[in-house]
Amino acid sequence: MMNDGIMTLLSETFEGPKGNGSWFTESKPGSGLFGTIDLLSTEEASVLVEGVTIAAHTDHTRYHLWANNQLLEGKEQDFNWEESWKIGAVGNDEWEQIKNGLHREYLKMSEHISEEKNLKPSTATILISALAHAAYHLGAIRQMIKVVK
Predict the structure, then answer these.
(1) Going by CATH, does the domain composed of 2-17+29-148 fall within 1.20.120?
(2) Using CB atoms within 10 A of its CB, is residue 100 exposed (0-12), middle (13-18) or buried (19+)?
(3) Region at 74 (left for phi over 0; alpha for psi -120 to 50; beta for the rest)
(4) Looking at the DSSP assignment, which residues form a beta bridge with residue 52?
(5) Domain spans in the chain, listed from the N-terminal domain onward
(6) What does the pLDDT look like over 19-63, one tens digit per residue?
(7) Could you tell me the pTM of the whole model?
């Protein structure tokens, strides 16, 4: 089933691979987006790298998931992509809010996948878009960490 494949890859992107194998991330626990950002302090998430912070990348990824979840729920609207990049330095509470928001939107998307038995092409496109976008930002954040650490 397509749902299972999409969920496997989405899970690996956010939670990291299950077991010893991997489809595209490192084959070790915690190499998904959640494990990667959980290792960062607020200060590290706030460092500018080429004009953007890891906090901004993380929140932009959250915003993209939120926008795709809105589309999956049939709530089309104007999305403000520039706004999702405006985060610079963050405090402890704001960094936790960003991470929790990302987790919340991931869980919501996971529910959409599990609820649909036969994905319509439009739904599959939204889900694959979200997967590819999040995987891109996972790679970008992991590269930024090399500068930040």
Answers:
(1) yes
(2) exposed
(3) left
(4) 49
(5) 2-17+29-148
(6) 777 778 777 878 899 999 999 999 999 999 999 999 999 999 999
(7) 0.92
